[in-house]
Amino acid sequence: MSRERLTSRHLRLFDSQEMAVADRAAVRDGRSFGELVAAAGRAVAAAVRQHAPPMQRIAVLAGPGNNGADARVAAADLIEGGWSAEVYAVAADAAARPIAFFDPAPYDFVVDGLFGAGLSRTLDGEVADAVNRLNDSRVPVLSIDIPSGVSADSGAVLGVAVKADVCITFERRKPGHLLMPGRALCGTVHVASIGLPDAALDEAVAGRPSLFANEPPLWLSQLSRPGSSGHKFDRGHATVFSGGATQTGAARLSATAALRAGAGLVTVASPPSAVLVNAAHLTAVMLKSCGGDGEVDALLQDSRRNAFVLGPGFGIGPRACSFVSLILRAGRRLVLDADGITSFADKPNLLFELDPADGDPKLVLTPHEGEFARLFPDLATLVDLPKFERARRAAVRSGAVLVMKGADTVIASPDGRAAINAVGTPWLATAGSGDVLSGIVAAQLAQGVPAFEAACAGVWIHGRAAEYFGPGLIAEDLPGLIPRVLAELFA
């Protein structure tokens, strides 16, 4: 599904239970199960025609459940159209060969219809052997719904899993399409409609916590655009705290990103020992000497300073905790990252009590997995929980919006909403990348964007900018790409 056609409704991710409820609701309201299977099978066959070499040999792997039924319909549709399609089934019959006989070598393309979103057990035996043979070959694969062996709910691999080039799923994407390691096994994901009524889909998710793919329709309406009669103070003033003289680069990366991402003014608050170092590198970003609590208090006297970043290169210790306390008790918005997070490792509840529960959170936490474990050690051990559920519980406990970074970054709000990022590139795994992200999020906070939407937008802009650059990316490249992303968003 192209970004141009996406709406916030389409961004809602459905887990396996929710999809099962939607199917049952559709059947109850007049759609037959056979109609749904036929529609799914036709959609699979159409996807094969789009992605496979014309009129070549196709192997179709069919499981014992609904996924297998879809696969068998697709095979019949292809054969009727003149394609050569042979079915290998877990439950073999006169129309299908046993899965144990499957050898990918003679085929040009394979349809994986073994197991879909409902899989809850580990693949083993003849099925696992067939999957391993398929993965060892170079034959292109289209998986129905999700690669067999991947949990649709968590992205976990259940023993062994198909590595697909293309997935075709139905009505809505599943969490496993976006969560690692499943995300890396899905290839390109296409969403096809099989005629489930909107009412059935709505019934399936009624009263359940919302989980979305993080894409622009989720938050674009909340972003700020400069008005023709506006001025820089309308777009907020972000302040980024710097580390000492040999640890200034991270703060400057964050500050530059905040300015590029739309903050009207940005200041680096530097310890006296680092003022000259920072001054040698800053132009449009302003500079202020700030060595202790008194200077932070002075900054907070200016109500126009409405968003802060603390953590990148700052240093770990009580000074960080004190600054954070002053900022949050003053009711200002704060992105806390890196050293700022680690400074609260032995007293996380002190941090969580600083953000008043008055609606929109003031605090955005941006931990990677290691930093997450320092603040939420018990949640970090719950590895069987999907990443979004661990992040959601952490957001509820802390009262903060949580950005749990990684190849499958998750953003979670204390109100239960969560989103899994849908863009990015492995080249983002580079020093300083997280500092840039903090600045982009702070820019949205400075402009008055609600915290959850500010975090979602920041994560997406960050990932999209990296996509524009590609291989060889370093953190310094990212701020200069932000205007291109904003132009795309506001076009």
UniProtKB/TrEMBL annotation:
Bifunctional enzyme that catalyzes the epimerization of the S- and R-forms of NAD(P)HX and the dehydration of the S-form of NAD(P)HX at the expense of ADP, which is converted to AMP. This allows the repair of both epimers of NAD(P)HX, a damaged form of NAD(P)H that is a result of enzymatic or heat-dependent hydration. AMP binds at K405, G406, A407, D408, T409, G434. The gene is nnrD. Residues 215-489 form the YjeF C-terminal domain. Its cofactor is K(+); Mg(2+). It comes from Aureimonas pseudogalii. PROSITE patterns: YJEF_C_2, YJEF_C_3, YJEF_N. It comes from the Bacteria. The keyword Nucleotide-binding applies. NCBIfam families: yjeF_cterm. This is Bifunctional NAD(P)H-hydrate repair enzyme. It holds the Pfam family YjeF_N. Homotetramer.
